[in-house]
Each structure stands twice: as C-alpha cells, then as structure tokens.
Amino acid sequence: MLANHSSATEFYLLGFPGSKELHRLLFATFFFFYSVTLMGNTVIIVIVCVDKRLRSPMYFFLGHLSALEILVTTIIVPVMLWGLLLPGMQTISLAACVTQLFLYLSLGTTEFALLGAMAVDRYVAVCNPLRYSIIMNNRTCLWVVVVSWMFGFLFQIWPVYATFQLTFCKSNVVNNFFCDRGQLLKLSCSNTVFIEFILFLMAVFVLFGSLIPTIISYTYIISTILKIPSASGRRKAFSTCASHFTCVIIGYGSCLFLYVKPKQTQASDYNRVVSLMVSVVTPFLNPFIFTLRNDKVIEALRDGAKRCCHLFSN
C-alpha cells in the first residue's frame, strides 16, 4: 500500500491476529467489559448527582472521573468491536484517526490531572480535616475540574498536530486496534527522533506532574494515619484513600509503560496489551474499586435499589 503516494489519506487498522473463532471470543469478552464499564460508571454519576450524602468534593471529582472513563473507552472500544466483526483490516479515514488520537490523549491527560487533584483533596481531608470545607469549597472544586479539562485538551493539540504533519510513505497499515501514536510514528519515513524526544518530555511532564503531588500527599497521609492511636481510627482514615490509591497504581502503572519511554515506536504486541489495560481494563475496574471499598457509595446504591424496587412493585 501507498506505493504511489507520499502520505496517507486513510489508514487500515490491523486489529488482533488470530482466527475468526478467537475474534468472536474477543468480541464477546470486550463487549461484556464495555457494557459493564458503561453501566457501572453511569450508576456512579447518577448516584453522585442524586444522593445528598455524596455531596462532597471527593464524590464530585469521582463523578467527573467516571465520565472520563466512559468517554475514553467509548472512543476506542466500539471501533475495536466493529473491527473484530469485519473480515480483514478495518479502514479509518485520516480525519477519524486524528480525532480518535486527539480525544484519547486529551481525555487521558485530563484524567491524570484530576487524579492528582483527588490526591490533594484526600491530603486535606486526612491531614487538615477542620479546614477541609473551607479549602475544598464548591468554587475551588469547580475550578479544579474546569482547569483539568482545559489543560488536557489544550496540552495535546501540538503533539497530535505534529504527528500528522509527518509523511506516511512506508505503509498505511496501523498494527493496533486504534490509531496508536507509536505505530503511526513507525509508519513515517520522516525523521522522528526530535518529535519522539519532545513527546517523551511531554509525557514525563503530564505523568510526573500529577504523580509528584500524589506521592507527596500520600506521604503526609500515611504519616498522619500512623499517628492515630486507635486501630479503628487508622482503618477509617485509610479507607477514605484506599480506592483512589488503587486507581492511581493501576492508571499510572499502565501509562508509564506505554508513554514514558524515549522510543515511542515500541513493539506492536507490547503497545496492544498496554493499550487494552488503559482503554478497556482500567475503566472496567474503576466502578468496582470506588464502590466495593466505599461504605457511603454502597449505602447509596442499596437505598437506590430499594427505591427502584418499591417503585416497580407499585
């Protein structure tokens, strides 16, 4: 392909190797993951909006995090599922490829900024509880969310623009199930050393820029929890942070392997596995992480289920 063209106007997504039977199995698995992700995160958004017991900064941020998870997985998974149903490679236009990559990276950047803000919120709640309502007031929380969304989308404009200014003359077959930037750079016949170095620095800035306040916050949080005399008090204090901490480990762990490396053109199988973690597994796990370990959310879900049953019974 691209024998007589200097650059691509469309791309072909190679998707997953294997037989039709394997593709059907993958389709059923990923469709289940996607359905549960949509339902779980939607339920969290609804109960955060409806239940008065969840009117606090922690749950306000959680609602936005759930919205981000829905959007991230929706940008990737439906295209991937459609590709599993089609024989051969899946065609995606240049405009669709640009849009998918930009939204995927922008929403991911927004999510990391929000995770960093949530860590600071947990620090204030545990280490400075008497001033928590004053520091984390409604105006502050709203500004944090607005700045996180704006930063995520503005920050990724140049990287995506620079990626698609390259000349794609080697091939237009992307060895992944979505428009993966690493694989796109691999298709370019331009010199990508400089742009890969800049993308590496930007990835370091995003990930470590939100990870450093998270590490500092949890250092103070753990120090404060250890000073609590009673075991029940320590357990209660830690339970308010456990869900966020688990989410941070999964989210940062996956993206550190995927983006923070000087050579962006990593092996395709490596990128495919880590991309699945980021776009499918993490959004699937987050509703369980934030509900199974949170008494308030469980209580709100239980009361909501009772009201629904009572409504239908009448």
From TrEMBL:
InterPro entries xref list: GPCR_Rhodpsn (IPR000276), GPCR_Rhodpsn_7TM (IPR017452), Olfact_rcpt (IPR000725), Olfact_rcpt_6C-like (IPR047132)
Keyword Transcription carried by entry: no
Gene Ontology molecular functions: G protein-coupled receptor activity; olfactory receptor activity
Gene3D superfamilies registered for this protein in UniProt: Rhodopsin 7-helix transmembrane proteins
Superkingdom of the organism of origin: Eukaryota
Domain G-protein coupled receptors family 1 profile: 40-290
One Pfam family matching this protein: 7tm_4
Membrane topology of the entry: Multi-pass membrane protein
Cellular compartment(s): Cell membrane
GO CC field: plasma membrane
Keywords, comma-separated and alphabetical: Cell membrane, G-protein coupled receptor, Membrane, Olfaction, Receptor, Sensory transduction, Transducer, Transmembrane, Transmembrane helix
Transmembrane segments: 25-50, 59-81, 101-120, 141-161, 193-216, 237-260, 272-292
Principal location: membrane
Family: Belongs to the G-protein coupled receptor 1 family.
Classification via PANTHER family: OLFACTORY RECEPTOR, OLFACTORY RECEPTOR 6C76
Protein name: Olfactory receptor
Annotated source species: Ursus americanus (American black bear)
